[in-house]
Each structure stands twice: as C-alpha cells, then as structure tokens.
C-alpha cells in the first residue's frame, strides 16, 4: 500500500529547481477562462442581440466586423486564448490517461501540431480577410465597399 505524502512534505530526491510548467498551466487555465468568458459573451452580445440579431449575420456583417482593427484584435485574442486553453486541457487529459510513453508522446505532438496549424490559419483569416473582394455581387458587399 502506498501512502500519499502530506502537501507540505519536503521533497527528497525530486527536481526542485526550474520552471514549474504544471503550475503555470494551471494559472493560465484560470486566467484565460475568465478572459474568455468576457470575450465570448461580448461576441455573442454583438452578434446575436444588438442590431437585428441573427438574421443580420451575413457576409457584409462579417466583412464589416473583420475590417475593424478592434474586432480583429478581439477575435484574434479569442481565437488564441480558446485554442491554447483547449490544447492545455487536452494535454492534461493525455497526461492523466495515456500510460504508454510512446502513445503519450504521439498524442501530445498531435495536439501541439493541430493547435499551431489552427492558430496560424485562424490568424491568417482574421488579419488578411478582404471584405471587398473584386468581382463580388454588390448586393452582398458591406456598405463601405465601393462598387467596382
């Protein structure tokens, strides 16, 4: 039978120096969770309740939103925090349940690669989105686009 040591038991023979990544991951989850609640509810408020509601969401609405630097930062921050928050949660689950070191390494690498790819693609879309594409139907364009 193994005993669980008391929380303040001095460590013997364990690594005590360096950065405690688990502690910082735990702190990140709490801080990002609070910020994400504000970002998500702000996003829902603007998209669902203000103005004409859901029926107003179309290409012109999204184009107008993503042409504003404020909303680019808002959506970019929401994207980054949510993806890293989710990846950190998945990392914790893998560390808790994957007992085979090789399987754990493959799963953690898959989480890291997919998170990096999704962050890169999402950031690319947010920062390079053109709300006034050439040759588009003028009825679908945002009101600030000049008819070409």
UniProtKB/TrEMBL annotation:
One of its GO terms (cellular component) is membrane. Keywords: Electron transport, Heme, Iron, Membrane, Metal-binding, Transmembrane, Transmembrane helix, Transport, Tricarboxylic acid cycle. It is a multi-pass membrane protein. This is Succinate dehydrogenase hydrophobic membrane anchor subunit. The lineage of its organism: Bacteria, Bacillati, Actinomycetota, Actinomycetes, Micrococcales. Its cofactor is heme. Pathway: Carbohydrate metabolism; tricarboxylic acid cycle. CDD domains: SQR_TypeA_SdhD_like. Membrane-anchoring subunit of succinate dehydrogenase (SDH). It is found in: Membrane. One of its GO terms (biological process) is tricarboxylic acid cycle. Its main location: membrane. The chain crosses the membrane at residues 27-50, 70-94, 106-129. It comes from Salinibacterium amurskyense. GO terms for molecular function: heme binding; metal ion binding.
